[in-house]
Amino acid sequence: MRYCRDMHGYGQTPPAANWPGEARVAVQFVLNYEEGGENCVLHGDAASEAFLSEIVGAAQWPGQRHWNMESIYEYGARAGFWRLHRLLTEKNVPVTVYGVATALKRSPAQVAAMIEAGWEIASHGLKWVEHKDMSPDDERAAIAEAIRLHTLVTGERPRGWYTGRCSVNTVDLVAEAGGFDYISDTYADDLPYWYEHGGKQQLIIPYTLDANDMRFATPQGFNSGDQFFTYLKDSFDALYAEGKAGSAKMMSIGLHCRLLGRPGRVMALARFIDYVQSHEKVWIARRVDIAEHWAKTHPPQPLAERPSQMPEDVFVERFGSIFEHSPWVAQRAWADELSPAHDTALGLAAALTFQFRAASEEERLGVLVAHPDLAGKLAQAKRLTASSTEEQASAGLDALTDEERTRFTELNDAYVKKFGFPFIIAVRDNTKASILAAFETRIANDRTAEFATACKQVERIGFLRLKALLPA
Question: Which of 76, 105, 178, 286 is the most exposed place for a label (fewest CB within 10 A)?
Answer without folding.
Answer: 178
